[in-house]
Amino acid sequence: MSAPSPHDVERLRRALALASKGRFRVEPNPPVGCVIEGAGGVVGEGWHDGYGGAHAEVRALAVAGAAARGATAYLSLEPCSRHGKTPPCVDALLAAGIQRVVVACHDPHPDEGGRGRARLEAAGVHVVGPVLPGEGAALLGRFREALARPRPWTILKWAMSADGRAAPLRGGGGRLTGDRAQAEVHELRGRCDAVLVGRGTLEADDPLLTCRLPGGPPDGRSQPLRVVVSRRLEGLRGRLLDSAGQGPVLLAVGRADPAEARTLEARGLQVLEVGPAEGRVDLARLLAALRERGVARLLVEGGARLHGALLAARLADQVQAWVAPLVLGGQDAVPAVEGSGVRAVEGAWRLHDPQWRKVGDDLVLQGFAQPAPAELAAV
Fold this sequence. Notes:
The chain has 379 residues and is α/β, with parallel strands linked by helices. It has helices at residues 6-19, 56-64, 89-96, 115-122, 133-137, 141-148, 179-190, 199-205, 258-266, 283-292, 304-312, and strands at residues 33-38, 41-47, 72-75, 100-103, 126-128, 153-160, 165-167, 194-198, 225-232, 249-255, 270-273, 297-300, 318-323, 334-335, 352-359, 362-368. Strands 11-10-9-8-12-6-13-16-15 form a 9-stranded mixed β-sheet. It has a 5-stranded mixed β-sheet with strand order 2-1-3-4-5, with helices on both faces. The two termini are 21 Å apart.
């Protein structure tokens, strides 16, 4: 096996830089970057740009086209051999005629274990690496953490005015952000396996929680599972409960009256009881139940009490906060996050690796709710 050259290291660092572009868009998947180099230089680049979408190798190969035959692929992560949301990347590399693969680090997924490398080598592809295991693993801490726990990657999303209000009055809805922000939110919905709201949001906003991009969810994905959290079933109403034909709806309650549950299930709704005896919803138990149902990526769209409870219980992974150029004011206005809060600024929930972007007239702040687990990023 030939040793990697300084040129190999340079190309791998480019692949790692490309991988970082997927932050906030691909979790709980790992961010991955790919550079394809032929005899005349780089012929294709790509990165994993959205959960459930094409992987880095597939995107780079699409750019390279026929020039990929006989070329070298530089990958921030060993190519996958398993069929998940998309087909195995090993298949794409072999079909394109790649003859050499250089990887930064191994894939820590328990179903991999070097299988991708073994398949490539069995087909006559020369595989080099891991060449930069430490730098590659530094991108994988959150991926490793997500693999190790029994709940979905959980994203809290809210919109608020410049003075931090989600609504002018409790029980009052209304859209704060502009059309471009709404389009991004619908793409985010379409890239999640489930969307969750509390009963208060259901009653105030009467949402459908579907992805309403032209053509539906991106990359041919199905509509997400729509979940409502409530202490009880009685009195639940809204368009969502009448829209089972547009995608599955799950009512997660602390206490489920058997007769009421049968009535709702006859309408095509699913009912899940996830609460202790006093009827409150056990959020950790709910998230574990969603993971058992195949939900790997969960979007929580409100309300303020639910956001506060998930942050306080350390059940949130990512925050997307939209800030509209509006001032609502008023002592009765609804804050974006409620709950017991903190007693001092030093105890605040700090967003890690924050990113600000301007979208139309609005700003969006993204950050991770918990620091990257450096101890899990070790080789």
